[in-house]
Design brief:
By secondary structure, the chain is mostly helical. The chain has 8 helices and no strands. It has one domain.
Length: 204
């Protein structure tokens, strides 16, 4: 199958989804879709989550080959936080506090993307783990029960896994010319600026 033909279609599909009215995504659940697909689409409709995923992917893609451990620690942290969310009966953080955690991690990761700093493996693992944990913690399943909740979590894990692969691949590929390095830095700057805009809007 021609991947070049798939990419424009994927971009168009995502743009259409973003233009849907808020009522379609009321209370964090798309009406008429299964719990799995709700989980699959969830990160795309939480700006703070998608920005953090993209920024962490760019950061990881610029590190050395040993950072596969950081990638697996990221996925593990997402799963652990999702399980805590699913099994916990007490919500210790409100939505605004969770959003601030995501924004803070986005700014930290974006800083290292902008300065093109290669980090020690341990530091990369810590950043990726914290980012993954906050993403999982922000994926609430309060509106779902029993089997629906676990189906949502599965979809969410799949979505986060697939979404982070794109910026990782982009950062690994765009490293052969000076202008490519500059492009990644600019993208990191945009993500940082977008995170600040989200923070400002949440305070308004």
């Amino acid at each position: 199958m021609d991947n070049s033909a798939m990419k424009p279609s994927l971009v168009f599909y995502c743009l259409v989804l973003f233009l849907l009215p808020d009522s379609v995504y009321a209370h964090g659940v798309f009406k008429g879709l299964s719990s799995f697909y709700n989980g699959l689409l969830h990160p795309l409709f939480v700006p703070a989550q998608i920005m953090l995923i993209l920024t962490l992917g760019l950061l990881l893609g610029k590190q050395d080959d040993k950072t596969h451990r950081a990638f697996f620690s990221f996925i593990a942290a997402v799963i652990i936080a999702l399980l805590i969310n699913a099994l916990s009966t007490i919500n210790t953080l409100n939505d605004l506090h969770r959003e601030y955690l995501l924004i803070a991690m986005t700014l930290i990761a974006a800083l290292f993307v902008i300065i093109q700093q290669r980090l020690p493996t341990a530091i990369t693992i810590i950043i990726m783990s914290l980012g993954g944990f906050f993403i999982g913690l922000d994926s609430s399943t309060e509106q779902l029960i029993a089997k629906e909740k676990w189906s949502f979590l599965l979809g969410n894990i799949v979505a986060v896994y697939l979404l982070i692969l794109y910026p990782i691949t982009l950062a690994e590929t765009f490293n052969k010319a000076f202008w490519q390095e500059v492009a990644i830095r600019i993208l990191g700057s945009w993500l940082a600026a977008s995170a600040l805009m989200v923070a400002a809007l949440s305070l308004a």
